[in-house]
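User: Structure please.
Assistant: Input sequence and predicted structure:
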Amino acid sequence: MTAVLRVMLDQLVSPTDHDLQTATRELTRALIAHAPQGCEVEGIAPAAGGDGAAALSIPGMAGVRRTALARRELAGALQLGVATGIGGGMIHAPSLFAPLVKHDRVHENDQTTVTIWDLRPWDAPDELPRSSAGWHKAMLKRAVKHADAVVVPTHAMARRLGEISPKLSDRIRVISGAAPEGFRVPNDEIGRRRDLGLPEGYVVLSGTAAPSDALTVGFGAVARSGHEVPVVVIDAGDGEEPAIAELAAAAGVPERLVHVRGALDDADRGAVFGAAVAFVSPSARAAFPWRTVEAMTVGVPVVASASDVLREVVVDGGTLVATGEDAAGALGEAVADALGSTAAAERLAVMAADRGRVFSWLEAADKIWALHAEL
């Protein structure tokens, strides 16, 4: 008898977040590649929309069940716990987008596991649209009642989630994410950077103008380093260039040195990292630091604040800085050290690349299969 793991693929059909889309794609591929003998993977997706069937063409998938509802309507139905036509069985969701309803794990072998990558809906709800924060909070309440396990990517986030929802504590599991499989600096990196209008040799930051605290500290760190170096900001929101330039100028980085780009595909991000002299990660939020992991994967020197999440993710793969009231100053000293000599930069690059090899979607898939076997 074949055991079937059914994976929620909503982010492949109607993506709401680039990193969730990537995580869904990479995890599903890895689950198929590492399926135990006698097991296979099926997909569950909303009714046609977005990229449609083309986005669901993952080699080796046993099939895809499409619901009668499109993603928006399905999200509302899942929040209310009404019938969706998804059915039971072993279900894994790379997000909270899952049928969290009463089911019989013991007699019917129904299992539902979900994943949380970002705790901002609870720790910083004002940073998100009210509807999004409300949906996540409602779905977590349903997970407390009905999920067989809730996956988070770090132990620090597991502790925090246990504080937010104490009733979940014995059902929380830690399974990390990773950079996209094969993430690298592409062979045509120079051409890609030329198309993006970027110089060579810069510090990379990731973030948006709202909230602005991470970029403000990042720009301040570059300014306080004493090095006049270009700064490339990726993952900016549409139309945020002027606001981010103002943040940079206020922190002491001239506008002429600032290059703002939005969400980039994997190859373009790899090209951006290919000419980076450092990646600065000042965020203290309880969220998986996707760009930090990518920077380490391709051997970019990393300077990061010693928040609980970053300390656990970076470990010895970069320079961790205890930040207090003068976070920019503390990080600035570390940036100055990273840019101060070729030997220091090479040492940090090797440390980053060594740490980057720890993160693997195939290992994550093995742990997901083991989790469902345990359940």
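The chain has a mean pLDDT of 93.
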